[in-house]
Each structure stands twice: as C-alpha cells, then as structure tokens.
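does this look right to u?? zinc ion version
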Amino acid sequence: MDHIREEDFINKKPDGTVKQINPFTANEVWTVPGRAGRPLANVKPATLTPLARHTEDDYCDFCFKNYLETPPEKSRIVLEGGQYVEKSHQSVDELYRTRALFRRIPNLFEIVSYDYWSRNFDYRLSDATARWRDSYLSNPRGLEHVLSIVNKKLLLQGHSRQAVDAMSATEKLEIANAFFGGSHEVIVVDRHYDPAAQYESDLFSSGSMTPDEHYQYFKFVVGSLHNLFEGNRYIRYVSVFQNWLRPGGASFDHLHKQLVAIDEWGTSIEREVELARNDMNIYNANTVNYAGYHNLVIAENEHAIAFADFGHRFPTVAVYAKSAETFPWVLHAEELRGFSDIVHGIHAAMGPFIPCNEEWYYQPLDAIYPLPWHILIKWRVTTLAGFEGGTKIYVNTLSPEDIRNQLVPQLFDLRYRGKIAPFTIAMECSCKPNSLKYYKSAVRT
Ligand SMILES: [Zn+2]
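got this back:
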C-alpha cells in the first residue's frame, strides 16, 4: 500500500469540506458542509412509544424469563455478598437459583461453526467439555432443554416440523455439540430496558451501566476471549464486537457482545500487522500523537485515551489502551479498569439512541509485531449509497471535530453528575506524545 502522507489524514477545504484519508485502511472520506452538524448525542428519537412494562423481563430470548430459550450457558457473573462471582457450567436446575448479571452463551447461529472446526481441523471437544455435556444431558430436564433448542434451530433454519420430528435424538445431540464446544459466543447483559425506562427506546445500553458494572462486563468478555483461545488451539484470532440497535446490525435490542473465533487474522488485522512491522511507532504517530496535535482528543486517563477518529465510513471514536501489554487478558487489573472507564464514558456520552458497532482490535496470538489493543465505536447513522459505490469516496455526516464537539459537553455533564469515572476531558488531557507503550512488548518477546 502506498504511504499516506500525514497532511492528507485530514484536509480542510476553504468551503468547509473536510477530506480525510485513513492511515490504516486508506479509506477516503469526505464531510460535506450542509450535510453535517446534526446533533445526535443523547437526543431522544422524534417518535416515542410508551413502554408497557412486564412484571418479569420477557421482552426477547435474552431476557431473564427466557433463559431456556437459549442454549446451555457456559458461565455467568452473579453478585454475592457485594462480590462479583463467576459460576461456570450451571446445570438446568441451577439456572434460576441466581440472577445472572452477565451470561456467556453459545450463539444459536454460528458464523464460524463447530462443524467448520471439526471438519477442517479435526477439532474435538476437550475431555472437560465432554464431561460437562454428558453431565448436562444426564439430567432429563437438561436433555429436554437441549433437544428443544436443537428443534428450534432446525425450524428456524427452514426444516419442516415433520422433518424435525423424524430426526433421531442421536442426530440432534450431534448438532448440540456446537452448544458445548463451539466458539461463537454471546455475552448477554441482564437488563433489557433501563430501570427508569418510560418509552420503548429507553433500552439498557453500555452507557447505562455504572463504571463498575461496565468494568465487570469488560473483564468477563476478556476472560471469555482468553478461554476460547485456550479451548481450541486452531484459533488464530477472535473477533469481538457489539452491535447496538437494528441499524447497527443487532438482531436483538438486548445489550450483548459477540465473540467469533476464526482461523485467520482477517484483512484489517493483516494490514495493521504489516504497517506495524514497517514502522513500529505507527500507532503513536498516526493515532494519539496526531489526534493530540489536532485537538481531537476527547478523554484520557493513565491507562487509555479516546479521540475523534478520521477516515471512517461512519463517524468513529477510537479508544486505545496505553498498556505495554498487547493481549487483552494480560493487562493488569487497573489498566483494564482504566480502559473500561474511558469506553464506558464514550458510550454514556453518546447515550442509548445512536446505533453503533463497538469493534475490538488487538495483536493476534501468532503475531510477533505488537499492536496496541484498541476499540473503535462506529456510529451507524449514515446509509451508504450509489455515490460511495461508484467513487469509493465515502460521505460521512460528521467531521472528527463535529464528533468531538458532540461528546465533550456530554462528558463534562456526566462527570459533574458522577455518572462516569473522573478522567480528564478534551483540553484537560495531557496528550503526551507516544503515550501508547505497546512497542515495549516487542523488546520482551
Ligand atoms: Zn431482552
């Protein structure tokens, strides 16, 4: 890929057009005056439907009352005596003994399936996983649960009721191996709606949590990520993402993240590794240093930094971990907390009404060139159309400065009200050059 000059990252024209080129993807993006500036952050939708509150949450399959509508749970986090405790492999009889704050469950429709790993790599259930499966199925209610989920899956896949009824239990249990040993998972949050919800749009979002809850959520996802790598040695990367609201690609309005294991790095990470190999300091130079010099930094603490990113098809906020550790599960607890606090703050400042994707990027397990762990939060507020298809120039409705200007006042307000962790905002940030210490991990390996 041709070298992209720093003066082309963001180029403001006299008429107000802001041309941008992303230094990692080479995407060309324009923000055109007149199409920009719509206020978005924390603005309620124009049409509001009053919410009919149910006594127990049963708004979707991820809700409390519908635990049995999803496959067997791998683990959950519960609050016991003020402590967050992880409980793994709950039997069907234990599902309702506690209320899960977060649940780790298999995705019913895997993007990369158990079958893919089993046929292409000869991947098999580990002894421990096979024991869990056998013990779950040895309970008649567990067996009934698993068979009902297999039936549901087959029907949703378009098989007729007659064909599903004609299948043997053995065939169905073969399909159920994906529930126990598959590597596409969903991490579901307890609440569907905000506790104070009045309208159907008042959903419980990442920003609705307290900073502490968000940290526990983050920690649980990171632990699950590590566990996937440990359970299947053929995995080369696990894609971690959160689709929020239908325009963001979510099939449920109920907050969840997904982890999808793959046997390659994927094009984005391959390109990033290549760039980092050529210039070890590229992440400092092209992200945080540049953002600091151009006043695009939105928030910062000792362990992380967020800025309005440039050259994305959708308005995007980037959050980078400063840690010298590059694998998310190796970060020290205080580093993970600091990173989580900033990500939480950005979500809280956006509010629950903006559809978005939260995408995680980190160093692949089998890469020796360090990449800093970072998260992009992309606002799915524009629809790509013919102009983009024909020119590969993407028109984005908000410039990086617009994004910063939307979030900064919200962050000051949230911090004043004690809703987010007390990190520095905008002009208060230190913006020291080379604040990302990922490159240090190269010296150690
Ligand atoms: Zn729900």
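The radius of gyration is 23 Å. idk if thats expected tbh
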